[in-house]
């Protein structure tokens, strides 16, 4: 999605440190990493990077093909676009599929021969240090990336561990070898976003430094430590502050100012190694806290120089992370499935040093006591499916995630859980306070290991902070007035859902007063429902709906966040039964859903809203407000229509190759939607223990649960001529309901789908067969 600020407040060796994910290749039950294609989503609007990382690691070491100014940065949110012809370097931090840009820290470029200090123009070969490359020379695997830089004849290989990026550069003979370090670039905006930076070469040859940027999270500080396996023959450190824009350099520059230390806003270092007869190895550790911590991270997580061993460890870590699900299917199906699972396990990212220190939203240094601190939280996206998927597959990891959220709230100057944060800092981007849904979903599904009372305190504190997104008026009026706050319609709906999530956890904890308060607030969606037009609409402070009204209208300042009335009017996941009643009953509800999918829509209507992509009628799979909609037929007695729509979506919105994602992956949400849907069920309302049943898209999948049980999904026949569910059995017994409980999965067993050519219109019609919604608690 288009990430814009909507709120203006400002250990041992690598295998030991990977903890639960550390495993050798021989230990992994299945070598699923071999099915992953990291190229998927690196073109178009997927915003994914092809480089090296490990599950939830701090390092994302990847090539950057461009870092344009902020106005043009959208397509380069991950630093790389498959259609580009040049690489400007390799940086160590990247977002995975975000709709907003930043990071791109510690950019390095291996150079053979003459050195140029600026990237140059990608259209003019030789105008700068960037190099042309050919996709035929690229190798993309989980935890490994390689490419030949054709302008230099350098073969570059990258791999990663949790806190360290590993480089191996093979230089051509007969030319001097150099590594250029550029501390100016930021994926947020190349020019002018560095507030201050420093770099120094220590007596033992270790290069260290820090920089502070004023990008998406203003005042973000990142430090690094870098070592080479061969001594430098010389080095030059430049302050290029007369040239903060990389194209058209006309300043005097180009003179080394120091060989030991340098500081300023535009630092470049060049490290010289002469002619090399063997590959140059480099390792880089980062820290959000200090140079000393970066050195400690390098000392502990970056021991030795065995590049191939670290590459094998990274692959083993991915095989371990992917091992909870075994899937049968064609090679293309397995590639699509395991690539989606891989992308669902890149974020959130470790944001803590080996000594337990991390930086919090107050910009201060804190210490994690007994847990790993994670950041990179795109809450508006990942609460829907990515985090529920990890609860199912890696519940131990979820404990650290929840503890990280609580720790962030305790350090917040505003008492708020993260909204959209990374490297510990808050951006205030997007809407809602969906961290409460992640915590509640974990608790309701039996995850323990965190302080539930602290969590509830953090959730209530967040939901009652009146200055955030006009929560003050929301608590007073029961809705967010559009004349006080932009996107008041959708904010009302999102707050109401989050309130319901708080109520579910409070109920499970026996906190009846908190439950009563937030259960009542969860009905506030009704205050923006307009029975006259049949859509959700924003209200003014005087209680009147804003006029004029056009259900097709979308854009910043409108009633809704990155959507229009056709898309947001279905967002009542906590009370679908109530929404069905408001819309006139099952038949009217289903007819309107059909209108949504079958409408003839000109995509040009959304030319100013970059994230509304993947249109099927008004349905926009490229953006998250639509993600639950196809499953809503289940709640209105027509699950066969859910099956029909899911096939449309899977056929049209996912595919092979760089353009295989129709929209931003959004830190794993688009991919997690695919995983759940391929398995045959989906968490429409996280913080419920239920999953709405759709239809599977793989013939067999076995989920190996952390409790030792295996839950197997099978479907026969599985082919294009049998798209509908004829019957379902659970452990051999007919399943008449169109939902699964979390406990059904944890118990293990087999869910079997009998597929057929024509829809079974009687299955799932009964009220008792439908997933629970707030207005049907009595079921």
Automatic annotation (TrEMBL):
It comes from the Bacteria. Residues 293-756 form the Glycosyl hydrolase family domain. One of its GO terms (molecular function) is hydrolase activity, acting on glycosyl bonds. The keyword Signal applies. It is an enzyme of class 3 (hydrolase). Its EC number is 3.2.1.-. Residues 1-22 form the signal peptide. This is GH92 family glycosyl hydrolase. The lineage of its organism: Bacteria, Pseudomonadati, Pseudomonadota, Gammaproteobacteria, Lysobacterales.
């Amino acid at each position: 999605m288009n990430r814009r600020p909507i709120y203006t407040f400002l250990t041992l060796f690598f295998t030991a440190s990977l903890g639960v994910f550390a495993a050798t290749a021989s230990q992994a039950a299945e070598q699923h990493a071999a099915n992953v294609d990291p190229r998927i989503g690196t073109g178009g609007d997927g915003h994914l990077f092809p480089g090296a990382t490990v599950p939830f690691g701090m390092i994302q070491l990847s090539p950057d093909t461009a870092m344009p100014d902020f106005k043009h940065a959208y397509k380069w949110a991950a630093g790389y676009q498959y259609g580009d012809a040049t690489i400007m370097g390799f940086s160590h931090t990247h977002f995975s599929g975000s709709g907003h840009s930043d990071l791109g820290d510690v950019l390095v470029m291996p150079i053979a021969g003459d050195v140029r200090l600026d990237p140059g123009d990608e259209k003019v070969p030789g105008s700068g240090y960037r190099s042309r490359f050919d996709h035929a020379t690229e190798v993309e695997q989980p935890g490994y990336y390689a490419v030949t830089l054709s302008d230099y004849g350098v073969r570059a290989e990258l791999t990663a561990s949790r806190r360290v990026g590993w480089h191996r550069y093979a230089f051509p003979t007969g030319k001097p070898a150099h590594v250029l370090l550029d501390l100016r670039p930021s994926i947020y905006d190349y020019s002018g976003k560095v507030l201050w930076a420093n770099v120094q070469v220590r007596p033992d040859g270790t290069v260290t430094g820090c920089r502070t940027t004023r990008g998406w999270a203003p005042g973000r500080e990142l430090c690094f430590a870098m070592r080479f396996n061969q001594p430098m023959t010389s080095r030059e450190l430049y302050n290029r502050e007369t040239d903060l824009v990389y194209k058209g350099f006309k300043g005097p520059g180009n003179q080394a100012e120091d060989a030991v230390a340098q500081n300023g806003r535009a630092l470049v270092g060049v490290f010289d190694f002469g002619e090399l007869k063997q590959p140059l190895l480099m390792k880089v550790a980062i820290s959000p806290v200090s140079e000393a911590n970066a050195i400690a991270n390098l000392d502990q997580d970056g021991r030795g120089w065995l590049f191939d061993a670290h590459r094998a460890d990274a692959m083993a870590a991915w095989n371990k992370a992917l091992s909870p699900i075994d899937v049968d299917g064609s090679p293309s199906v397995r590639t699509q499935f395991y690539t989606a699972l891989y992308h669902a396990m890149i974020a959130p990212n470790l944001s803590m040093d080996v000594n337990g220190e991390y930086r919090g939203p107050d910009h201060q240094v804190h210490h994690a006591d007994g847990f790993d601190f994670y950041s990179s939280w795109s809450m508006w996206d990942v609460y829907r499916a990515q985090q529920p998927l990890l609860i199912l597959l890696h519940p131990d990891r979820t404990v650290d995630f929840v503890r990280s959220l609580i720790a962030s709230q305790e350090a917040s100057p505003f008492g708020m859980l993260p909204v959209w944060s990374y490297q510990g800092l808050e951006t205030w981007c997007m809407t809602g306070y969906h961290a409460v849904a992640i915590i509640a979903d974990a608790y309701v599904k039996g995850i323990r290991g965190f302080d539930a009372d602290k969590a509830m305190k953090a959730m209530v504190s967040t939901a009652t902070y009146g200055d955030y997104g006009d929560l003050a008026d929301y608590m007073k009026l029961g809705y967010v007035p559009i004349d006080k706050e932009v996107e008041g319609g959708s904010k009302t709906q999102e707050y109401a859902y989050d309130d319901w999530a708080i109520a579910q956890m409070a109920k499970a904890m026996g906190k009846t007063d908190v439950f009563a308060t937030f259960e009542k607030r969860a009905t506030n969606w009704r205050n923006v429902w307009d029975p006259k037009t049949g859509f959700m609409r924003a209200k003014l402070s005087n209680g009147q709906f804003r006029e004029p009204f056009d259900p097709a209208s979308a854009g910043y300042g409108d009633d809704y966040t990155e959507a229009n009335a056709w898309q947001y009017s279905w967002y009542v996941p906590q009370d679908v039964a109530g929404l069905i009643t408001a819309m006139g009953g099952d038949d009217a509800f289903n007819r309107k859903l059909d209108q949504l999918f079958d409408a003839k829509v000109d995509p040009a209507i959304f030319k100013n809203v970059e994230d509304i992509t993947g249109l099927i009628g008004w349905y926009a799979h490229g953006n998250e407000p639509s993600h639950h909609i196809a499953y809503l037929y289940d709640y209105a007695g027509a699950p066969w229509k859910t099956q029909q729509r899911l096939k449309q979506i899977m056929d049209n919105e996912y595919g092979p190759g760089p353009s295989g994602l129709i929209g931003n992956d959004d830190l794993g949400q688009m991919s997690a939607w695919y995983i759940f849907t391929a398995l045959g069920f989906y968490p429409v309302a996280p913080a419920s223990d239920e999953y709405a049943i759709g239809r599977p898209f793989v013939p067999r999948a076995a989920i190996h649960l952390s409790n030792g049980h295996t839950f197997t999904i099978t479907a026969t026949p599985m082919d294009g001529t049998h798209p509908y569910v004829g019957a379902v059995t659970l452990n051999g017994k007919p399943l008449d309901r169109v939902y699964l409980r979390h406990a059904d999965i944890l118990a293990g067993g087999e869910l079997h789908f009998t597929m057929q050519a024509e829809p079974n219109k009687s299955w799932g019609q009964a009220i008792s067969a439908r997933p629970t919604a707030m207005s049907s608690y009595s079921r």
